Amino acid sequence: MNTTTLISFLFFTGMVAFLTWWKTRGSDVDTDEGYFLAGRSLTGVFIAGSLLLTNLSTEQLVGLNADSFRDGLSVMCWEVVAGISLVILALVFLPRYLKSGIATIPQFLEERYGRSVRALTAGIFIVAYMLILLPFVLFLGANGLNSMLSLNVKFGVTDYQMIWMLLVFIATLGGAYAIFGGLRAIAVSDTFNGAGLLVGGLMITYFSLQVVAGDDGGISGALQKIDAADPDAFRSLGADNESTHWPTLFTGVLLLNFFYWTTNQQIIQRTFGAKNLAEGQKGVLLAAFFKILAPLILVLPGIAAAYLVVTANDQQMIDAVGTNSDGDWNSSQAYGALVARVLPEWLLGFFAAVVIGSILSTFNSVLNSAATLFSLDVYKQYIRPDATTKQVRFSGQVCSFVVAIFAVIAAPLVFYGRDGVFSFFQGLNGVYFIPLASVILLGLFHKTADGRSAMAALIVGLVLMVIGTFFGGGEDGWLEATFVNGFHYMGAVFAFLIVMQLVMVAMGIRRDSPYEQRDAKLVDLTPWKPAPYVGGVLVLLCLGVYAFFAI
To answer: Which helix (H) or strand (E) is 446 found in, with range?
Structure first.
């Protein structure tokens, strides 16, 4: 890392830290609501920024571009379909959440089903964040930074050793935001880092297409070259040999997107901190618009990298990407290699700071969510019901520290040396997404289902998803032979769990009286009047993008 790169890295990182301190000085972090929900003071811009950057991290920058390197535009489903899910969050789910005045999803489930369901779901979220989500974010962040800046070469260590060093550095820096600053510091820093990520990501796309075009005429020339070399690269509907074959849009892909954006604590916690319903809806719908455009920075660079490696035989890219033990291109190295190939030296430090900011955003947001879940759903409910506000907050800080340690240890053990990591990660997410989604969905829209059917669905669902995910037999196993694609298996399990709960209700396992949601009266529930119209336009935009690239 030369002097210019180092200076630009330190400047941007320091500027974000200073602006975050300036915007949050004097904020209330001494109460539960102030620490975990930013004092219910977040406006639409900060909600949108925090939603986007909590999601737009290295699992997308590195992971999704790695999948587009292999499969082309079809992997955009993880971004574009999210736009529809966010519209549903804004119009359907958010009014219900804010009406209950909840801080966590398990808190809502206690109100709906009882304490046992709250305890189990809180435990599921915390374990999943610790062993699946955080390790994935940390690993791809460390791996991406290493390949962008060739840090292992500069420091004279192995690739594996460098990843460990970066894991510890990122976890230490990110933990400081989450443990000491609370949700408001996270939301504000997310917004500043998000602006940098959008600018930096678009720069990578632009420079990549310029390299592809060469002397043959700008961006349009680059797109024509790629399309001529691989007509499938720009098709929105995945072929049967791709991880997101088009029928999966209606099964696992749809369900994973739906759960992630409407009921996942890590994501929607920032909407719980909304100043009022109108601001929450503005922020969510603004985030939906940017998610629809996200393939420009999360998919297109991977397609350009594939062209440079496979068609253009760009030797610098070929050497940097390399092959795995099966002789296939090591797609997880593609994005970092592309950044090092196309970005001018003086911008590398800025982009490295942006990447670290995106990693920290997701990392500290998940830590804050884990702390919220543990403090409010476990510690205050079961360990120390009479705890003071200070003790509750301290328990969350301890939880954040423990979760961070386990995540650092798990990151290389789970993901190192694995190709196609984004699809693998989504498969792991399904283990807990699918059971929780079935219970939450029925709880919101069925008034008589009770805690017994919910507990049964959670336990049976977890068992079925673990069997399918870890004992499916791989590409030639029983799961692929029966369901063609693991995402179809998720859809089948989800449908089974919904039917199972309805059957239990029909058999008399139900509430004595229909559930009626209470109004906590904590925020103004007046909706943003244009929200339904804006949401409708965004849904049409999603469908239009798919239709345009379908042929």
So the answer is: none
